[in-house]
Amino acid sequence: MGAMKKTSSKFNKSEVLKLKEVFDEADKDGSGEIDTAELAQSLQKTNLGEAAADMFRAIDKDGTKSLDFSEYLKIKSIFVLYDANNNGTLCKKELTEALTATGYDDEEVEDMFEDFDEDGSGEIDFEEFCKMLESSYLD
Fold first, then answer.
1. Where is the EF-hand domain positioned along the sequence (predicted)?
2. Domain holding 117: CATH number?
3. What pTM does this model have?
């Protein structure tokens, strides 16, 4: 429980409750974790590369290939960290800065951005960001 408090401190109570609701909806079997099968059912599989898979593995500390709520909050914290202008989305520049720091070149980031900007908004929202991380881990 201490880990959840530490991780969730970046969010107010209302935000944590809303995130918990989203997490619970993805947790189809009610196990308290989002497992690989649940991810596969709910996410479109695409190929991102090792950066997202590495990030997912780093968050999945227990190596279960599933995320508990505390781990889910860590993903949200990473998203918020990269969202430099705090508008709730990652623009191409924000995603480029994040991924070029891990060794990707501009062309690779451009391809990733196009793959995951599903609504064509020119920005990656949190749902698209999660799909990017989770689908690369499942591939």
1. 14-49, 104-139
2. 1.10.238.10
3. 0.53
